[in-house]
Specification:
Elements: H1 15-66, E1 69-70, E2 86-88, E3 94-96, H2 134-137, E4 138-140, E5 148-150
Antiparallel strand pairs: 1-2, 2-3, 4-5
Length: 167
């Protein structure tokens, strides 16, 4: 029994079938990729807000206990047995922290930026040379004692329209 060309079994896909599949995959990618990118940004913004909340709460507790603001964010992680010696008053002047008032640490001293316990800014790239430097993540004290903002991004707005500079 010989197979005639008309009854021969077809093997593989035609070029047209392959092109249709590629076009369908490309259309699906055009729909899905923007949604995924938006979800990633929204997740980073949520993490940024939460990390700012933790930092600001720690600064508030430090200030409530000592009557001063921390000189640097790293002061929030000092053990109670090794308190920072100075803080900053409302005018931005350095003062000695009264003995026995520091009740820290106000942030867990493990994890975070270079295992300091200071939260990581999710918009800061891990590949940056200054990734382990807290000042590359957060702007602290530039606008006044006890005020912390993200160091990056500094321009633009969150997905809900709130300027990054005002977070």
């Amino acid at each position: 029994m010989h197979n005639s060309p008309q009854t021969a079994r077809r093997r593989g896909f035609t070029l047209i079938e392959l092109l249709i599949v590629i076009v369908v995959i490309a259309i699906l990618a055009l729909i899905v990729i923007p949604r995924v990118m938006g979800a990633i940004r929204k997740s980073r913004e949520s993490t940024l807000r939460e990390n700012l909340h933790h930092l600001r709460t720690a600064i508030t507790h430090f200030s409530s206990d000592t009557g001063l603001y921390p000189s640097a964010l790293i002061d929030l992680t000092n053990a109670k047995t090794d308190p920072p010696t100075t803080g900053v008053n409302d005018d931005g002047d350095t003062e000695t922290i009264p003995t026995g008032t520091y009740q820290g640490p106000y942030l867990n001293a493990s994890g975070g930026i270079g295992t300091t316990g200071i939260p990581i800014n999710p918009f800061k790239a891990h590949s940056d040379a200054d990734f382990s430097d807290p000042t590359a993540h957060w702007s602290y004290g530039a606008e006044g004692p006890g005020i912390v903002h993200p160091a990056v991004p500094t321009e633009g707005s969150t997905m809900d329209g709130f300027p990054y500079s005002e977070l």
